[in-house]
Specification:
By secondary structure, this protein is an alpha+beta fold. The chain has one helix at 2-30; strands at residues 37-47, 50-59, 65-66, 69-75, 81-88, 93-94, 99-107, 114-120, 129-130, 135-136. The chain folds into 2 domains: 1-32; 37-136, Sandwich (Immunoglobulin-like), CATH 2.60.40.10. The strands form 3 sheets. It has a 4-stranded mixed β-sheet, with no helix packed on it. It has a 4-stranded antiparallel β-sheet with strand order 5-4-8-10, with no helix packed on it. The chain has a two-stranded antiparallel ribbon with strand order 3-6. The N and C termini lie far apart (71 Å). The relative contact order is 0.22. The model has no long low-confidence stretch (mean pLDDT 83).
Length: 138
């Protein structure tokens, strides 16, 4: 009987340990690849009937990016997508680790209070972006 109880306690300990470590293992697996574009700085402000978006970004360490396009998603008060505006970064090819500035001027999306940012290559392939945010429009 004592042997059966000790076996049961060991089994319970093993199950509890596996359950406790499972989230840690999942978090380690989700790390994945580094971002292809890192937003270093971004600001969006209203200027008359337009919205001006300025910022700096850095290309990730994996490979160069050709014809980088930024997609700004303008969101309403309840986080619904109101409008997406697309703009190109001036350089044709951005090398690994290179920093670039971007500037966009678009018509003011009415009722937009915040925005997020995405990126694509010229061929339409979506890029992994760090700090996509939900930033307030100033």
């Amino acid at each position: 009987m004592l042997r059966w109880v000790s076996t049961l306690l060991i089994a319970a300990f093993v199950v509890a340990t596996v359950i406790a470590l499972a989230p840690l293992c999942v978090a380690m697996q989700k790390k994945g690849k580094p971002p292809e574009v890192v937003i270093l700085e971004i600001i969006c402000r209203r200027s008359g009937v337009d919205v001006v978006v300025d910022g700096r970004l850095k290309i990730g360490p994996e490979r160069p990016v050709k014809k980088l396009q930024l997609l700004i998603d303008f969101l309403g008060a309840d986080h619904q997508l109101l409008q997406t505006k697309r703009g190109e970064v001036n350089d044709d090819v951005l090398q690994k680790g290179e920093e670039a500035e971007f500037h966009m001027r678009v018509t003011d999306p009415i009722r937009a209070v915040e925005y997020s940012i995405r990126a694509e290559e010229g061929d339409g392939r979506e890029l992994r972006v760090d700090r996509t945010g939900r930033y307030p429009i100033e």
